[in-house]
Recover the amino acids of this structure.
């Protein structure tokens, strides 16, 4: 009976780990792709193109970043429990702290993405240039993205190195 249970626990851990790794890859990869395309579009100055990319960035957040951001702590806690680790283990605490920092800096950035989408779409509808609020929002979005990105990278380092 114990051998069967150990096999199932091991299998469950492996499934959780695969899902966790895929979610972390999606979380970071979608975030980096969104930043690249958003900054690329902004550089063109083409308001219509900017509006389309801003729309796509908001959709990418809803489809990829938010779900993977929910999956990560769920699978992480599942693996932690299955492997017998505790929330008080330093590397677990560091990983969660960095994850929370990434989330706390990403969340306002996500609202700014929605604002930039709305502002750029309104500019297209009116046939106008992007308003100053768009550029202020973009600056704050970029400034929030720096700690969010490095915190996410930090989570990778902590989880892999168990620091």
């Amino acid at each position: 009976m114990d051998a069967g249970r150990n096999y199932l626990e091991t299998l469950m851990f492996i499934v959780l780990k695969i899902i966790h790794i895929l979610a972390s890859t999606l979380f970071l990869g979608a975030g980096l792709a969104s930043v690249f395309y958003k900054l690329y579009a902004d550089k063109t100055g083409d308001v219509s193109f900017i509006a389309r990319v801003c729309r796509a960035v908001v959709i990418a957040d809803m489809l990829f970043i938010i779900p993977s951001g929910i999956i990560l702590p769920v699978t992480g806690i599942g693996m932690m429990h299955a492997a017998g680790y505790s929330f008080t283990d330093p590397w677990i605490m560091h990983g969660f702290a960095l994850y929370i920092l990434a989330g706390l800096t990403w969340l306002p950035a996500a609202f700014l993405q929605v604002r930039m989408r709305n502002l750029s779409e309104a500019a297209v509808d009116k046939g106008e240039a992007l308003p100053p609020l768009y550029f202020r929002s973009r600056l704050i979005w970029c400034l929030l993205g720096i700690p969010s990105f490095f915190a996410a990278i930090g989570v990778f380092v902590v989880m892999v190195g168990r620091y």
The chain has a mean pLDDT of 95. The chain has one domain: 2-161. The helical segments are 2-44, 47-83, 90-126, 132-161.
